[in-house]
């Protein structure tokens, strides 16, 4: 408020160009413009109103009342505008950094009038507050959101995460991307520099072109060591959506490749290995995954729980029956998912238990078994049946979708090559 007092007492003596300069140091974004500057030497009683325009930024922990407090408006104007704003927006949840555009006219008596204060309230709304003729009002302006299909193409130089986000894939879609190819690739070993990826995904953008949220991956292609895997999201004529390869075969298999998210194989499937705990050779009949206690264990496929409880050397144990004569078993668990019981239906990927070291075990790990028609098989090498195959009546719609996406990828790749620095072309 200091500058106002200073300006008021000095405006008849100081040229108004200087007055304008003085007001500027109050807020770096402020501009004082108006006809008053044209005639700097008249006294303030004769001055026509000037227009003040400023941008104010919401600080950490601040609310609209803080903005109003440094707006230059009178206390009663501030209160009236605050009152008008109530109900239009959740004033307490505004983000630091929110920009407020303020404008008002200031009469010779330094009484602000015709006040306008606008700010963006999230990606979909702007709030316009006004004060004129002793009345405050608030108006909500809705902004249109648009769902768009975007493309990210690139190659691995550092890591999938770094290079895919650099190519424009939202970070939130990296994991879904890896899950699409979970049956084709082992991300801890297979990915190398030079491998290329192409992704088409949905995103919602606001009217300024900013991403509000990302949606589903509609199609993805990953070329690893010259071998290309592709996946296309397709809703069949029954309305069931799933990923298919370019031939219309479901990407999703009956069982997950691994029932853990992050893992390293500590001991491969081996029917004649020496068991480290029991100390004698016996059929191991499963794959051990080293993982910390508490790591979620996922149901490998859709099915029905057939066993939950202690099971000798297996410790805490879960067994699930799937279609096609398959069963999966999970041992040494620290605990089960809440409420898990025998007879319960589970979906592929649903968390059923957590890694532990119960039963005969040297340390926290998951012992995982796959049983096909009563015989133990190696889950890492057994060819698993696919979940779905496209019906012939859906094939032509699917093929034209694949063709149009492939075209957009080719265009994106051409653009990428054109934009690459000279040294990296080709
Ligand atoms: Zn084991």
What multimeric state do the chains show? single chain
> Which fold does the CATH topology of the largest domain refer to?
Nuclear Transport Factor 2, Chain: A
How many structural units, i.e. domains? 3
Q: How much strand?
A: 25-35%
Q: Give helix and strand order, one letter per element, not per position.
A: HHEEHHEEEEEHHEEEEEEEEEEEEEEEH
Q: Give the proportion of residues in helices.
A: 10-25%
CATH class of the largest domain, please? Alpha Beta
Counting DSSP H or I runs of 4 or more residues, the number of helices is 7
- Category by helix and strand content: alpha+beta
How far apart the termini lie comes to: 63 Å
Structural notes for this entry:
It is a single chain. This protein is of the alpha+beta class. The chain folds into 3 domains: 2-142, Nuclear Transport Factor 2, Chain: A, CATH 3.10.450.350; 145-252 and 390-426, Nuclear Transport Factor 2, Chain: A (Roll); 264-377, Glucose Permease (Domain IIA) (Distorted Sandwich). It is built from 7 helices and 22 strands. A hairpin with a 2-residue loop joins β21 (365-372) and β22 (375-377). It is elongated and about 95 Å long. The two termini are 63 Å apart. Zinc ion (ZN) binds at residues 284, 286, 288, 367.
